[in-house]
Amino acid sequence: MRGYPRKLIFYAAIVLLVLFTTLPVLYAVITIFKQESELYRFGANPFIYETAPTLDHLVYLFTSTPFPTFAMNSLVIGLCVVAITVILAVPAAYSLARLTGHWGEHSGMAIFLVYLIPPTLLFIPLFRIVVTLGLANSIWSLVLVLPTITIPFCTWLLLGFFRSIPRQLDEAALLDGCTRFQAFWKVVLPQALPGIGACIVFAFSLSLSNYIYAVTFISESASRNISAGVPTELIRGDVYFWPSLMAATTAVAIPLGIAYGLLFDYLVRGFQSAGAKEG
């Protein structure tokens, strides 16, 4: 019985943490189906339906706003950013970890510092580049710009991960007759899949959530992504379409949360490896 109070405190803390993380999502889901009259009634319980639920706000989001277009644009942007990030960050991290000697071993933090530069300092010069290339008001402006954020971070993350893979694996493959590329592709790359999975989740999440670049580079509604399009369409002056805003938030957050859950082990292994090696 001596450890009972400690266990009670531990489980109480877990319950509070679960409530803290799940109640906002629960509130958002409930709000989607509330009647307007109930939603703005003073004293109404936000977690209980006092009148019959309605699907009007959900229907409005998908039929009376360009939300499906925003979602498709976000998907295309996310997939392109992920592909560019993986194609460039993986060989860069491997080269720094294996082929550049002592200098490469200490370059991870310098690369990571590029990621820490605030976007508010970069969006004006990047806007000039986007305009010069004729990509303004196009989703391809975000495909071009967002990798400037994702590649430095993912290179740093994968750099630590490649360092955790023993060099003896590369050397054994080279002794068996493999070229450097074959040793990387057949031996090292499969060992780095958890880190690559972490990079994929990070790059896709950032492409969905980035707001300042999306608003700066794109002004046409048909080319906007979710982060810029939803506030523009569902916040008009001082009028907030709260149920439809909650529906848009939930439609993005729940699939992304499921993806994080499925790749959670990969994320933990990737960040632990990078943090341990940099430390």
From TrEMBL:
Predominant location category: membrane
Pfam families hit by this protein: BPD_transp_1
Subcellular location: Cell membrane
InterPro entries registered for this protein in UniProt: BP-dep_ABC_trans_perm, MetI-like, MetI-like_sf
Keywords of the record: Cell membrane, Membrane, Transmembrane, Transmembrane helix, Transport
Start and end residues of each ABC transmembrane type-1 domain: 71-264
Keyword Metal-binding: no
SUPFAM superfamilies, per database record: MetI-like
Membrane topology: Multi-pass membrane protein
Keyword hit for Lipoprotein: no
Membrane-spanning residues: 9-33, 75-97, 109-127, 139-162, 183-206, 240-263
Family: Belongs to the binding-protein-dependent transport system permease family. MalFG subfamily.
Descriptive protein name: ABC transporter permease
Organism: Litchfieldella qijiaojingensis
Lineage: Bacteria, Pseudomonadati, Pseudomonadota, Gammaproteobacteria, Oceanospirillales
